[in-house]
From TrEMBL:
<dbReference type="Pfam" id="PF00704">
    <property type="entry name" value="Glyco_hydro_18"/>
</dbReference>
<feature type="compositionally biased region" description="Low complexity">
    <location>
        <begin position="132"/>
        <end position="144"/>
    </location>
</feature>
<feature type="compositionally biased region" description="Acidic residues">
    <location>
        <begin position="145"/>
        <end position="157"/>
    </location>
</feature>
<feature type="region of interest" description="Disordered">
    <location>
        <begin position="125"/>
        <end position="186"/>
    </location>
</feature>
<dbReference type="GO" id="GO:0005576">
    <property type="term" value="C:extracellular region"/>
</dbReference>
<feature type="domain" description="GH18">
    <location>
        <begin position="1"/>
        <end position="128"/>
    </location>
</feature>
<dbReference type="GO" id="GO:0005975">
    <property type="term" value="P:carbohydrate metabolic process"/>
</dbReference>
<dbReference type="InterPro" id="IPR029070">
    <property type="entry name" value="Chitinase_insertion_sf"/>
</dbReference>
<dbReference type="InterPro" id="IPR001223">
    <property type="entry name" value="Glyco_hydro18_cat"/>
</dbReference>
<dbReference type="InterPro" id="IPR017853">
    <property type="entry name" value="GH"/>
</dbReference>
<dbReference type="InterPro" id="IPR050314">
    <property type="entry name" value="Glycosyl_Hydrlase_18"/>
</dbReference>
<dbReference type="GO" id="GO:0008061">
    <property type="term" value="F:chitin binding"/>
</dbReference>
<feature type="compositionally biased region" description="Low complexity">
    <location>
        <begin position="174"/>
        <end position="186"/>
    </location>
</feature>
<dbReference type="GO" id="GO:0006032">
    <property type="term" value="P:chitin catabolic process"/>
</dbReference>
<protein>
    <submittedName>
        <fullName>Bm8301, isoform a</fullName>
    </submittedName>
</protein>
<dbReference type="GO" id="GO:0004568">
    <property type="term" value="F:chitinase activity"/>
</dbReference>
């Protein structure tokens, strides 16, 4: 008798194992945002210090982590360095980080010191700054002759209309709201 997966009652064969792990990689279908994380109680994102040091895919230049039914794609120092090299090759002017507080700002989670992602960007781009001389051409002005035309355009004028309205919204339930404020008249 073949061993079976408890959840699906499918045989645990190489094919099953390959399909299972393939479904946990880049390109796997997703049905919802990720669950709440320490940095985002609403779900959908997690910070680098929560997912660092998991898995890396060379072909797609991406790091990812799988935890149960949760899948996170993210950048680490290695992917950042690769992307900074690409950025320089293409002649782009710089890079940015979406949220500094999602980096390992204490340096305790990844063990690589504070801000490992920001430092990877900085070290790859350091010394690359060129301040090219920016030249702007003087705008050219072309003179044209004025001309008369027999064409007339008919327009109609519309008088502005205003309405005085009282907007009252009636509801069946009214909730009392009080504000603790200091009002100074004078």
């Amino acid at each position: 008798m073949l061993p079976v997966c408890v959840k699906t009652n499918s045989p645990l064969l190489q094919e099953f194992a390959a399909d299972y792990w393939a479904s946990k990689a880049i390109g796997a279908p997703a049905s919802r945002p990720s669950s709440a994380s320490k940095t985002n109680p609403a779900g959908g994102t997690a910070s680098y210090w929560e997912v660092a040091r998991k898995r890396f895919i060379k072909k797609g230049v991406g790091a990812y982590m799988v935890k149960g039914d949760q899948w996170y794609g993210y950048d680490n120092e290695k992917t950042i360095r690769i992307k900074m090299k690409w950025l320089k090759e293409k002649g782009y002017g710089g890079a940015f980080i979406w949220a500094l507080d999602f980096d390992d700002f204490t340096g305790k989670s990844c063990g690589k010191g504070p801000y490992p992602l920001l430092n990877a960007i900085s070290s790859e781009l350091e010394g690359e700054s060129e301040n090219p001389e920016i030249t702007t051409e003087e705008p050219s002005i072309t003179e044209t002759e004025a001309y008369d035309t027999d064409e007339t355009e008919e327009t109609s004028e519309t008088e502005a209309t205003t309405y005085d309205t009282d907007v009252t919204e009636e509801t069946s339930e009214t909730e009392a709201t009080t504000y603790d404020t200091d009002v100074t008249e004078g």
